Amino acid sequence: MNDLQFKRHRRLRVNESMRSLVRETHLQKEDLIYPVFVVEEENVKKEIPSMPGIYQLSLDYLVEEMKEVESLGIKSVLLFGVPNEKDEQGTGAFHDHGIVQEAIRVIKKEVPSLMVIADTCLCEYTSHGHCGVLENGYVQNDPSLNLLVDTAISQAKAGADIIAPSNMMDGFVAAIRKGLDEAGFENIPIMSYAVKYASAFYGPFRDAAQSTPQEGDRKAYQMDPANRLEAFREADSDVEEGADFLIVKPALSYLDIMREIRDRHPVPVVAYNVSGEYSLVKGAAQNGWVDEKAIVLEKLISMKRAGADLIMTYFAKDVAKWLDE
Ligand code: PBG
After folding, report:
1. What Pfam family is a match for this entry (predicted)?
2. Do the interacting molecules here have an ipTM over 0.85?
3. Which of 97, 267, 273, 280 is the residue whose CA sits 20 to 30 A from 319?
4. What is the pTM assigned to this prediction?
């Protein structure tokens, strides 16, 4: 035909059947974890202004939502509580009848097959909005650990299937593992927010969870976006301390880190496709500037290609519907 020597890569792209035959990465409903915000007031279904399509839900609406999630084929949810009252220590986080504990009980009773992952942090419950005990403007590490352990145990008692500590204190995995074991919960896994950057992409979440720090920022405990080796140190120590899953958060700007964490640790790795990543797409889609479905599916497949086994995403319900089309 021709004398030029070259390869015909396009042979494997000629039509959709051929393309699907050679596709390397797949997105499935089982990969999806849907985050939910539960409020303590009654009769609330309130859309979060910066996150169109995502709501703060009271327990009654929560049950409806969870039934829908289950019927769409999503297996797991991630729970955040928004309490009525906050205090210095965030005691609402570990109250036996706190909002998250009640939400876990309701879901386990009404929709028992759903896997309930409890986000374990104090920032939604503290009056100052920081993720631990604040003294002289500094979030104290070790005193915060005890409160986190109490929170994890109360969530496990309420029926949580997985504990997901997100507050970035040193030693939180070791402390929570020990606490859970001593309380008889040796079979409850820890999904650690091991690699969590101090990110502007959390902005809309802080509206949703009402957890914006009243003063300062989280840079003295969350990681510097400029750092890569620091991510390995964090992940290594969490695995040594007993983490069963590792979360990398946010997802899209950190896919390089995701790949390296995947290659380093033989544990399930989770991408958190965070609130700001959601809002950016939603805003553009609402203006008709991008094709929402195509953009979202491309984003999520990139996370899987980068090594994520599971994806926490506010798009989970939409994706589950699209995967059925
Ligand atoms: C709690 C927590 C945060 C998110 C998950 N858990 C917020 C933060 O660290 O400020 C962010 C999730 C999102 O942006 O979707 N510490």
Report:
1. ALAD
2. yes
3. 267
4. 0.96
